[in-house]
Amino acid sequence: MSTELLPGRRRFTLTSVLADLALLAWFTFALFPILWMVLLALKTSAEQTSTYFAFSPTLENFGTVLSARGTELTSVDFTSTLITSVVSCVGAVLVSLIIGVPAAYAAGRWKYRGSNDVMFTILSFRFAPELMVVVPLFVIYHQIGLFDTRVGLIWVLQLVTMPLVVWILRSYFQDLPEDLEQAALLDGYTRRRTFLTVALPLVRPGIAAAALLAFIFAWNNYVFALILTGNEANTVTVAITKFLGGGGQAYYNLTAAAAVIAALPPLILALTIQRYLVRGLSFGAVKA
Amino acid sequence: MSTTVTGRTHEPAPVQEEPERPPSVPAWRRKARPYVLSIPAVLIIAGILYPFFLGAYYGVLNYSAINPEPIFVGLENFARVLTDSQFWGSVRVTLVFAVVATGAEMVLGVGVALLLNRASRVGRIFERVLILPLMVAPVIAGVIWGLMYNPQFGVLNYVFGLGSTFNWLSTDLALWSVILVDIWIFTPFVAILVLAGIRSLPRDPFEASEVDGASWFYTFRRLTLPMIWPYILVAVIFRFMDCLKIFDHIYVLTAGGPGAATRTLQIGAYEDSIINLNYSLGSTYMFLLWILVFITARYLVSVLGKAQRRAAGAEG
């Protein structure tokens, strides 16, 4: 029945039961790995490979990976990688905001020669194969001493954060009725004051969404830190893969605990900006 | 709340006269304003484009860690790579991965979006957590799935009763197993975009088709699908382009193996340039991948433009 394509109509028929079952099947598949990660994180080392669902849960692993004992066992200093991730991702987002907001405003408000070239070059960063840039940077960073530093990470993370910030905010500035700013200009405001007191406050949700989404994708990035850091400035994503490497006893439960800790910030942030996700994920191409 | 796809309704206004400007702001300053605002961004762009062009330049050198003073070798690297069966193997793996993963994610994503659009009680609960797999870092997804795939203690073999010998990451199966992980991560992305699209559709045509007694499938094929096509295309562009440069979860799960079964182009380039430290060879790989990405992007964007114009025309 075509009613199923309409929002808001419900019927308790065979089709609706089947549809709910299909949804249940999908979400079992989608949520099981996350549930499994949490379960593994709650197991002791003795139980990590010997049992599937029946075990006595413990929160000990979370304390272990964050303490010196975890470093001793796995030779991964997870706490310091957490700090590196926070510092480099927050830094990268701030740089992108400071540089990207004016550019987004210019591109959203005026059509000037070269504006499309600038915008599409920025967008192309999102789609360019990372190694095309990272391999030369690997050589350059070694020469100028940025290898294995947080500053180096902030620089290269612009590839992730800049396109998001600029494209999302451009779409927000475009949606802003120009009349508001014209009115302020007529009242004798300067263009700068109009921007700061009229335009900027109105796109605040857009700025928040863009900043949080940029943070999430910077946080989840792997390839930059994998190649451009050694032991000093590893990020959480690199650290998690190191838990598994190396000889000796494998601590899958500690790996899972670290994975849970590393996955929490993006998950929480994503749930807080759910309203703006569609627009953000599509770089402003789809406005919901 | 209405939904639009850009390019249809909003175009930036041309630089125009501002009303009653203070005399202290001369015309040239107003003309220069957008350029001044863009300068920092252009500097960042230059900082990213420099290594990009340097990488392209490596392609015509014989630069590696054991040969730190490279000389110009012309197209030697390209000749070597283009006649290398391993390179073409990587091209094949990359294309199979991109086509199968993107295709499956579109079908499943549209399916999940249609089911969620019914707004049943079950659906409303699930919609809140739809985003979760997408927000877990692909590397973490790779680690979790690696533990689940493990033949000895992996939960999948236990749940499906496959014993301890069935290997999800064997030569024959590895590519399909990493595609499954990609589907797990990115189907929600498609579902979220398409669901937003469906919710923005006008109700009248659907009510008309119901009055006419059209079947569900007919309505879907003739009405829903054409109307949400621009949204699906946006999703295809993002997914297909990302699949061409796929790295994270494959590298964690298989590192390109067994043999070269999951050696995509970016993993090949990583092996050549970072593990074997042959920067020129790796850059050649990347340059060829970049050309592939560039051509695909141009094609997909032009298809999207046409679809958007058609949808705009159809909706009046």
UniProtKB/TrEMBL annotation, chain A:
<feature type="transmembrane region" description="Helical">
    <location>
        <begin position="21"/>
        <end position="42"/>
    </location>
</feature>
<dbReference type="InterPro" id="IPR050901">
    <property type="entry name" value="BP-dep_ABC_trans_perm"/>
</dbReference>
<feature type="transmembrane region" description="Helical">
    <location>
        <begin position="82"/>
        <end position="106"/>
    </location>
</feature>
<keyword id="KW-0812">Transmembrane</keyword>
<feature type="transmembrane region" description="Helical">
    <location>
        <begin position="153"/>
        <end position="173"/>
    </location>
</feature>
<feature type="transmembrane region" description="Helical">
    <location>
        <begin position="250"/>
        <end position="273"/>
    </location>
</feature>
<keyword id="KW-1003">Cell membrane</keyword>
<dbReference type="InterPro" id="IPR035906">
    <property type="entry name" value="MetI-like_sf"/>
</dbReference>
<dbReference type="Pfam" id="PF00528">
    <property type="entry name" value="BPD_transp_1"/>
</dbReference>
<comment type="similarity">
    <text>Belongs to the binding-protein-dependent transport system permease family.</text>
</comment>
<feature type="transmembrane region" description="Helical">
    <location>
        <begin position="194"/>
        <end position="219"/>
    </location>
</feature>
<feature type="domain" description="ABC transmembrane type-1">
    <location>
        <begin position="82"/>
        <end position="273"/>
    </location>
</feature>
<protein>
    <submittedName>
        <fullName>Carbohydrate ABC transporter permease</fullName>
    </submittedName>
</protein>
<keyword id="KW-0813">Transport</keyword>
<feature type="transmembrane region" description="Helical">
    <location>
        <begin position="118"/>
        <end position="141"/>
    </location>
</feature>
<dbReference type="GO" id="GO:0055085">
    <property type="term" value="P:transmembrane transport"/>
</dbReference>
<dbReference type="GO" id="GO:0005886">
    <property type="term" value="C:plasma membrane"/>
</dbReference>
<dbReference type="InterPro" id="IPR000515">
    <property type="entry name" value="MetI-like"/>
</dbReference>
<keyword id="KW-1133">Transmembrane helix</keyword>
<keyword id="KW-0472">Membrane</keyword>
TrEMBL record, chain B:
<keyword id="KW-0812">Transmembrane</keyword>
<feature type="transmembrane region" description="Helical">
    <location>
        <begin position="223"/>
        <end position="241"/>
    </location>
</feature>
<dbReference type="Pfam" id="PF00528">
    <property type="entry name" value="BPD_transp_1"/>
</dbReference>
<keyword id="KW-0813">Transport</keyword>
<feature type="region of interest" description="Disordered">
    <location>
        <begin position="1"/>
        <end position="26"/>
    </location>
</feature>
<keyword id="KW-1133">Transmembrane helix</keyword>
<dbReference type="GO" id="GO:0055085">
    <property type="term" value="P:transmembrane transport"/>
</dbReference>
<protein>
    <submittedName>
        <fullName>Sugar ABC transporter permease</fullName>
    </submittedName>
</protein>
<feature type="transmembrane region" description="Helical">
    <location>
        <begin position="95"/>
        <end position="117"/>
    </location>
</feature>
<comment type="similarity">
    <text>Belongs to the binding-protein-dependent transport system permease family.</text>
</comment>
<dbReference type="GO" id="GO:0005886">
    <property type="term" value="C:plasma membrane"/>
</dbReference>
<feature type="transmembrane region" description="Helical">
    <location>
        <begin position="35"/>
        <end position="60"/>
    </location>
</feature>
<dbReference type="InterPro" id="IPR035906">
    <property type="entry name" value="MetI-like_sf"/>
</dbReference>
<dbReference type="InterPro" id="IPR000515">
    <property type="entry name" value="MetI-like"/>
</dbReference>
<keyword id="KW-1003">Cell membrane</keyword>
<feature type="domain" description="ABC transmembrane type-1">
    <location>
        <begin position="91"/>
        <end position="300"/>
    </location>
</feature>
<keyword id="KW-0472">Membrane</keyword>
<feature type="transmembrane region" description="Helical">
    <location>
        <begin position="282"/>
        <end position="301"/>
    </location>
</feature>
<feature type="transmembrane region" description="Helical">
    <location>
        <begin position="173"/>
        <end position="196"/>
    </location>
</feature>
<feature type="transmembrane region" description="Helical">
    <location>
        <begin position="129"/>
        <end position="148"/>
    </location>
</feature>
